[in-house]
């Protein structure tokens, strides 16, 4: 009787990997979870995002803010990857106190910090609450309704502070988009007023495209404009050169001047050559050029022989 070797799968000692090869689609379907406990657990959580990943390091940011915030219980921070992080608090009062002190910045770049929400949006968190001064608006138009319209146009308007000296508003601005620093207020009678918006506690950002994730020297918009300006200048210089070349009389003048300068330049070259070239041949040439006459050759006289008398 022939004996057959029993496989590990038949013995129950291993998995039969040859028959279990699922398709790799990188997409799975799962049922809705019962996450009521997770919702309660994260109700006292703040989610944050850095604006400049190359400068702001999350591993050093977490201990910094853990010590910076003066709370009754220290929050527990963790790195969520891709520039995101979270802080879990023990008390509601501590969490609210931290939110009231916004906006924050780290390594001179802004930090986005929001209370956790059960959302799957990739742009969460994105809001930064700023106190913004409204300048350029005439004093007789300092009304809360006007300020509210301006604030609602640039973000989520929260409140306004109007005094006899200044006007400012607190607005939650999308930190992933360019800032708005100018706004035009229009009235039904056709009047228009241009206002400047000054963001308080705003740190490093691009002064060209007004984004928060890079500086002017790294701005692609500024580089493109500089490249286009350089190309236009080179094109204009090329047109000027072509025009000057085709002007009437320019060729004749150039040839005449070159003809006049020909002998002069030749003499100059000869002089410079004679000045710095010291040789016997050169000295003889120089002497003859100055009119120097060489001495006559001495004649050899034949000896006198007396003639015979006839």
List its traits.
310 residues; single chain; Alpha-Beta Plaits; DUF4283 domain-containing protein; five-stranded antiparallel β-sheet
Written description of the protein model:
This protein has 310 residues and is α+β, with helices and mostly antiparallel strands. Among the domains are: 37-115, RRM (RNA recognition motif) domain (Alpha-Beta Plaits, 2-Layer Sandwich), CATH 3.30.70.330; 127-205, Alpha-Beta Plaits (2-Layer Sandwich). The chain is built from 8 helices and 10 strands. It has helices at residues 8-11, 36-41, 58-68, 92-100, 144-154, 220-245, 250-276, 280-289; strands spanning 45-50, 76-81, 84-88, 104-106, 109-115, 127-135, 156-162, 167-174, 182-186, 192-199. It is flat. Pfam families: DUF4283 (PF14111). Residues 270-281 have a biased composition (Polar residues). This is DUF4283 domain-containing protein. Residues 41-122 form the DUF4283 domain.
